[in-house]
Amino acid sequence: MGDEIFSVYLTPADYSKLAYAKLELPASPWELLDALDKARLPEGDSLYLEIID
Question: Around Cβ 10, how many Cβ atoms within 10 Å?
């Protein structure tokens, strides 16, 4: 899409689920949906985000 500005780490707030994704921002809508799918975030659940780079 463009030059990477920063990276974020995404995981469900329920840490018992061992799913996560790394997303480079800015991201396209499809990249965002793919990252949420990789993090296995069910609709309505909380998301933990951490800026990593």
Answer: 19
